[in-house]
Amino acid sequence: MFLSVVIPAYNEEDRLPRTLARLQEYYGAQSYTFEVIVMSDGSKDRTVALAQAFAANDSRFRVVDSQPNRGKGYVVRTGMLQARGQYVLFCDADLATPQEETEKLLPKLEAGFDVAIGSRPLRDSNLEVRQPFYREALGRMANKLIQIVAVPGIRDTQCGFKMFNAKSNADIFSRSKLDGFSFDFEALMIARDLGYQVAEVPIRWMNQEGSKVNIWRDYPRVFRDLFKLRLMGKARRLAKN
Questions:
Q1: Which domain, by its residues, includes 73?
Q2: Closest listed residue to residue 82, CA positions, set 23, 32, 7, 17
Q3: Distance between CA atoms of 63 and 38, rounded to whole angstroms?
Q4: Count of domains observed in the chain
Q5: pLDDT in tens, 93-114
Q6: How is residue 235 annotated by DSSP?
Q7: What is the DSSP letter of 119?
Q8: Among 31, 187, 200, 225, whose CB has the most other CB atoms within 10 angstroms?
Q9: Is 122 exposed, middle or buried (0-12, 13-18, 19+ CB in 10 A)?
């Protein structure tokens, strides 16, 4: 298996059928083998039923109905550890980053990087549809704090388009613990602690309506997790030495 694609999904009945059809169309046209793992995070709508109906007609797709709702970090971690590919990508169900951008990340891993991540602030990135001003401003502030405290030099930890080679994927996600939205920078912190090389890649990106992130509820949790992870990272480095 060349590429595994992990799709976290929570109550995505409205857009998931289009997303799966697009993945089938795009990856089916490539020369490499692939699998798609849909990870439902305790969905209460028809997400699982629709995904299972799609997978019944294409063995390259499989569905995991994770119950109860545990958080995006939990289902991404579970899916990544089930992946069988030489390279493993996780991307959001809204396809805010189009699947064609896969071909920008793959060359980085084939060139020797262990992790390649889409990065929206890079000069060559193309943000075709931007977030509302207040969300973008808060996101920039959060990313700046994350850079200072956790992963200096990485400009965008939260973009939902990240690829790992098989070894880094297993090493990182077997050590990750956070179930919420903080899992992104936790994975990058662990990657840095383990000495893995991370490449930031400019991408196309289009804001999609229906984000599951509640800035007033989730950002305080992110900041709490950030400082908690800083302490955990220090403990890992001390244990390593």
A1: 3-240
A2: 7
A3: 5
A4: 1
A5: 999 999 999 999 999 999 999 9
A6: H
A7: E
A8: 187
A9: middle
